[in-house]
Amino acid sequence: MGALRDPRRLRTEVLAGLVVALALIPEAISFSIIAGVDPRVGLFASFTMAVSIAFLGGRPAMISAATGAVALVIAPVVREHGMDYLIATVILAGVIQVLFGVLGVAKLMRFIPRSVMVGFVNALAILIFLAQLPYLTDVPGIVYPMVAVGIAILVFLPKITKAVPAPLIAIVVLTTITVAFTLNVPDVADQGDLPESLPALFIPNVPPSLETLQIIAPYAVAMALVGLMESLMTAKLVDDVTDTHSNKTREAWGQGAANVITGFFGGMGGCAMIGQTMINVKVSGARTRISTFLAGLFLLVLVVGLGEVVGTIPMAALVAVMIMVSVGTFDWHSVKPATLRRMPKSETLVMLATVAVTVATHNLAYGVVSGVIVAALMFVRRVAHLTEVVDVAHPDDDTRVYAVRGELLWASSNDLVYQFDYAGDPDNVVIDMSDSHVWDASTVAALDAITTKYAAKGKTATIMGLNDASAERHGRLAGHLGGSH
């Protein structure tokens, strides 16, 4: 790997991995609490996910670890059935993700519009910021100037030098101040106990029965879908930031394999993390798998070997880092008045719908699905208004020619049958389809209804000008759909 032979690039990757590891600790602990498990379960999951995906994933420099989205999905399993069923769920979810990857589900990413991606990014930025508010509520007053100092370092230090990542300097400076002046402020140790040993192989003690499968399968499928969607969306975002292309299919089955490995080491599973990925790629400048691997390795070393030192890091330092990540992640151009005036209202609506649902539910999958649905409805509405029927010629007293123009699908063809003058037209009617395209059975049914209505009046309607694909579809379905208009 080129980075190993380039000291400057290697230093960037190493320091980026260290910064990400420090930022992962409180996040992993928090997500463990959400899932209802011991903090060590989340920390071990973050270690095994990061190290595994560094080798298996399709997107270099992306960080995968325990996440809030996965924690929310699996929390009921822990609460109702216990730890062993949780691990079984994680392993099954990983297997499902591998199957999805092999079946090419990742290719569905191309159906996600740009406006949904913008909404996804903006919603993530808002959620990252909102996640910091609990650390700024009911805390000693000194926390606020500490956060301000951290933000100042993050803003101004890169203007002076980029030799060392600004987040690392902010963490070191604020930790030094806290220890030197023995400040009584919330720190990492307050978030939960750190592990004192390495993760060990864990085989879930659940009966291999259909009943077990019925219990864990719904949660496993939900975890697989949420994890894949969040990971693939994050991978696409990193593609845009780095102007490179990644293998989404490999990323899909790689996430699944990483979850299987994580489950067998007693971890709670996970997926790509947008906040830590942005720290790694956008803030720290990492570009290779080395940073991802080292993030996991440093995490384990820090929590197991240097737990007491890590425990003294003030949460104010990590809050400052994450606030700047949220500011950097948000697509400010998308909300500028000039952009909003130029952008079609339907595109803005799709973006806002994605943001609103994601922020309201704290579930990225719900937000993305809602955005895609709104985008599809807006597209169908737009296409439906582009279809028209025009009276174009009267070759003789006994013939009238209509031209149908536009894309014909269920939304645009439902009113097609009402666009003709069945009683007033002459005996021979020609419907010219040269400037249209038949996309579905609804359109064929509409054409059947038109010819049937003319026949009922003793008149003949001839459809002509169909392109090859439309003619094939019409020839295969016409007269075989049943029903009437």
TrEMBL record:
Q: Does the keyword Flavoprotein apply?
A: no
What topology does it adopt in the membrane?
Multi-pass membrane protein
The main place the protein resides is membrane
The portions of this protein that span the membrane are: 40-56, 85-105, 117-135, 141-157, 164-185, 215-235, 256-275, 295-328, 349-380
Where in or outside the cell is it found?
A: Membrane
Keywords assigned: Membrane, Transmembrane, Transmembrane helix
Tell me which PANTHER family the record gives: SULFATE TRANSPORTER YBAR-RELATED
Q: Could you identify this protein by its name?
A: SulP family inorganic anion transporter
